[in-house]
């Protein structure tokens, strides 16, 4: 009797590749549905419909909706961290190279935040999904670590960048400064998602950036 099941040698690689492709399709669709309709309406049917797949495809790839949501959280966190990490690794502008110590940290931090904000503005759907999933992780004790991981990654990226540019920020100080900055950007981002006013958000970011020298100095002094 012939069969094209995934455990036969001649069909295994093809089926595995197909499963991986469907997995990515479902994760993409879940991000969109969560952002558009909220987590409560992100049913497996809604997600498979958005992905253009049969309902059976979901059960072929994931054992449960919770497994899919965990994969979505990991995707969102990984994408944001990778993007911000790449931004942090870009070379300092010429003006920054003439600075030292905390002045250099302020210059590099401002450059980082402007580029990060441009990324946030271009990924509104992803940011909406991130907030939905963070709240979901906080409500489920077994998923709380995913919310913690999300912020630890962002803080770690910023903190490492700050330590690389000046020795005046020890690990504890750079971590506290990074958490403060992430918390502020979180607030600005949430307000932008609510009022959908890009110009107002840009003005608020500009005002915040003018306070960076005082914020960095306060953390160093403490």
Succession of helices and strands: HHHHHHHHHHH
Instruction: Bin the strand percentage.
Output: under 5%
Number of strands: 0
The gross shape turns out to be elongated
Give the C-alpha Rg.
21 Å
Task: Detail the poorly predicted runs.
Answer: 1-15
Q: For the report, how would you describe the main beta sheet?
A: none
What do these coordinates show?
This protein has 222 residues and is an all-alpha fold. It is built from 11 helices and no strands. It starts with 11 loop residues before the first helix and ends with a helix.
Summarize this, please?
The chain is mainly alpha-helical.
Which descriptors apply to this entry?
Tetracycline Repressor, domain 2; 2 domains; elongated; disordered N terminus
Describe the secondary structure blueprint for this structure.
Layout: H1 12-37, H2 44-51, H3 55-61, H4 65-89, H5 94-97, H6 101-121, H7 124-139, H8 144-165, H9 171-195, H10 198-210, H11 212-221
Helix pairs in contact: 1-2, 1-3, 1-4, 1-7, 4-6, 4-7, 4-8, 6-8, 6-11, 7-8, 8-9, 9-10, 9-11
